[in-house]
């Protein structure tokens, strides 16, 4: 027997396009944990619980829907949108939806799209597992190297061809590598370069202070400038 896959359905359309019917008929291994016609109820539910797949059949991807998507995007789970037109589908994808189906939905198209979503979901789970196993980094020192957990790194600061690494135990490691080297290696671990001198771990971000570029306050209480040209990308990243 296959393991159950958990789904959440948001459906405010009374047009015969029953997502739950299609899902139950074609994918008996799915468990529909939550179904609603209300974006607000879905938002409340997804704030508390995690699901493997989100299916949406709504008339308009508005601000409330975008808020739900932003919560759901934090996981690696796919989102499928049942769209009235190519235009609305493209707009939805820009908001973070993984894939879409056009109405009227054919069974074959539905099966192929859901299979593709689950395949991608499983690949992401494997990647996350691999990251959790290999979430350490070697920091070269004069004596050899220091091996640390990546989530212990609060921030990296450039100093010419050297980089200062600030750790959560309040220690600092000086490494003879450029900040660019660390940016390449750590970008997949929720690090963001806010300035030509600063690469920060967003998990250790405490506060953002408005300004021309603004400033961030980190877990070690350091206050760092955000460059003007990186400000918009930074704010989008943490939204």
Describe the structure.
- This protein is an alpha/beta fold and 239 residues long.
- It folds into 2 domains: 5-132, 3-Layer(aba) Sandwich (Rossmann fold); 137-238, LytTr DNA-binding domain (OB fold (Dihydrolipoamide Acetyltransferase, E2P)).
- It has helices spanning 19-26, 39-48, 63-72, 86-94, 107-133, 179-186, 228-238, and strands spanning 5-11, 30-36, 53-57, 79-83, 99-102, 136-141, 144-149, 153-159, 162-167, 172-175, 191-195, 198-201, 205-209, 215-218, 223-225.
- The strands form 4 sheets. A 5-stranded parallel beta sheet has the order 2-1-3-4-5, with helices on both faces. It has a 5-stranded antiparallel beta sheet with strand order 10-9-8-12-11.
- Strand 11 (191-195) and strand 12 form a beta hairpin.
- Helix 2 (39-48) packs parallel to helix 3 (63-72).
- The mean pLDDT is 84.
Topology:
Blueprint: E1 5-11, H1 19-26, E2 30-36, H2 39-48, E3 53-57, H3 63-72, E4 79-83, H4 86-94, E5 99-102, H5 107-133, E6 136-141, E7 144-149, E8 153-159, E9 162-167, E10 172-175, H6 179-186, E11 191-195, E12 198-201, E13 205-209, E14 215-218, E15 223-225, H7 228-238
Parallel strand pairs: 1-2, 1-3, 3-4, 4-5
Antiparallel strand pairs: 6-7, 8-9, 8-12, 9-10, 11-12, 13-14, 14-15
Helix pairs in contact: 2-3
Question: What key phrases describe this protein's structure?
Answer:
239 residues, alpha/beta, Rossmann fold, OB fold (Dihydrolipoamide Acetyltransferase, E2P), 2 domains, five-stranded parallel β-sheet, five-stranded antiparallel β-sheet, 33% strand
